[in-house]
């Protein structure tokens, strides 16, 4: 019952976005990594200034290009990216993942750095996309009014908000709030093996699990990760077995079984082939090292 209540209390993506907007005062939006479309935002409407700029085809093109460049940068680095758009406004983008798959971007904007950028500078940039010849005094007043609506913050305040957005993006990733809609077979298989390596796994069982042919899954996995499914699973299990051997209360056969090896002799052969020593020799080495540090670790040369 407590677990069910805790699950119900976990915030949704929409709630996270609303709270982040309430704290920062900036527009917060979530984009799909697959096609770059906006999934949800708070507030839903873009700022009046952005809307005015995007009435001009060139202004719209520049806005979309800024978004694409930001997405590419985040995809390449896997990190939050803070930048100034063509209108002189600060924006930021953070990656969202489902396992090791990039699923989306959390974006924050738009704001003026009150210490380095004036509203007059933003106004001049915005005027590039307005037909000056047809602008009336009333139009000029309206443009100045919507520029004045853009929030201004000190650079340190902007960075604090970006850090808060990064924390929220991390939570969304860890809680798997925004899962992949079209994860590839290779990525699906890798994620499954990472979670279920201790169970019986074969190429055939993976094909049944993800409804793909042997050729498709095997080819996709090798193309994506550079090794075969068998090689990846073996390496995963050996690393886990190696870690378990450091628990001295556990027998070699128990470590082998928990790591996914049903035959302790096979585990020993595979372990020796990979690490040039038997599981027992590895365990003795780690135990001797631990004892040495306990007995002599306090001595300095």
UniProtKB/TrEMBL annotation:
Keywords associated with the record: DNA-binding, Transcription, Transcription regulation
Source organism, top-level taxon: Bacteria
Gene Ontology terms, MF aspect: DNA-binding transcription factor activity; sequence-specific DNA binding
Pfam families documented for this protein: HTH_18 (PF12833), PocR (PF10114)
HTH araC/xylS-type domain segment(s): 187-285
TM segment ranges: none
Name of the protein described by the UniProt record: PocR ligand-binding domain-containing protein
């Amino acid at each position: 019952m407590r677990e069910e209540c805790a699950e119900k209390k976990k915030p949704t993506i929409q709630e996270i976005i609303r709270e982040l907007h309430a704290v920062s005062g900036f527009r917060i939006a979530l984009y799909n990594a697959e096609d770059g479309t906006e999934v949800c935002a708070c507030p839903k409407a873009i700022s009046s200034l952005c809307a005015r700029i995007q009435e001009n085809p060139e202004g719209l093109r520049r806005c979309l290009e800024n978004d694409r460049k930001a997405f590419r940068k985040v995809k390449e680095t896997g990190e939050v990216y803070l930048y100034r758009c063509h209108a002189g406004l600060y924006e930021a983008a953070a990656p969202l993942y489902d396992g090791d798959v990039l699923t989306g971007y959390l974006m924050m904007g738009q704001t003026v750095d009150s210490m380095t950028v004036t509203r007059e500078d933003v106004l001049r940039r915005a005027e590039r996309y307005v037909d000056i010849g047809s602008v009336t005094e009333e139009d000029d007043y309206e443009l100045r009014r919507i520029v004045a609506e853009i929030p201004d913050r000190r650079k340190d305040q902007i960075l604090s908000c970006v850090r808060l957005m990064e924390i929220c993006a991390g939570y969304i990733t860890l809680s798997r709030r925004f899962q992949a809609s079209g994860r590839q077979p290779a990525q699906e298989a890798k994620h499954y093996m990472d979670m279920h390596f201790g169970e019986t796994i074969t190429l055939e069982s993976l094909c049944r699990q993800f409804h793909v042919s042997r050729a498709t899954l095997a080819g996709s996995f090798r193309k994506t990760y550079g090794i075969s499914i068998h090689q990846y699973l073996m390496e995963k299990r050996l690393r886990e077995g190696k870690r378990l051997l450091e628990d001295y209360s556990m027998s070699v056969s128990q470590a082998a079984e928990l790591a996914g090896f049903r035959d302790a002799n096979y585990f020993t052969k595979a372990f020796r082939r990979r690490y040039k020593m038997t599981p027992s020799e590895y365990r003795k080495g780690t135990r001797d090292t631990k004892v040495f540090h306990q007995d002599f670790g306090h001595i300095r040369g």
